[in-house]
Sequence to fold (223 residues):
Amino acid sequence: MQAGNAYYRGPKDLPSTIPLFPLAAALLLPGGRMPLNVFEPRYLQMVDETLAGSRLIGMIQPSLDGSLRDDGEPELCQVGCIGRITSLAETGDGRYLISLQGVCRFRVSEELAVKTPFRQCRIAPFTCDLDEELGAKEVNRPALLKAFRAYLEANGLDADWDSVSRAENGTLVNALSMMAPYGPAEKQALLEAADLKTRADTLIAITEMALARADDDFGAGLQ
Fold:
């Protein structure tokens, strides 16, 4: 797998510890690209230090139940995704606009006691993610596209269907999962799906439930 100018083929190519960027309802998946607007001083420092090293950070959601640590910081979900900083632009008001490319998911093994203002953890990477197309052949592509098309039509949206038709299954599943406008719990379910087939099935189910709720709400409004 290639990300920027680096190659990640196995666990030896990945660091054992990474800095963390907790962000609710943000979903980064292997091979996906995520733009980020970085403005908090601690995360500006994190980017600076990361650029001087591995260029890798861990995107992770705060705990879904809203629980907090004794210091007021949020508890975290146990699974996140490693992202490599592939581009950075500075703004005139002190912000960084960065782009991340997803490398692989990770499980938090241990959060570290550190002196940096940003959090860091020891990780267990999901090395199966380094093969982006693993399980892609089992994806129910017609059902996925049907659900995607129905969602777009229900919301008056359109898509570049030429690009969609050319996309490989793995790319398609992860791109649609990342752009889906669902909440933190649904995003975490998509992240933690065991494989591409399961992620696609999960996305189809979530989309169908969203469409059914919309139909129910519309019907109730007519009564």
Observations:
- DSSP finds six helices and eight strands in the chain.
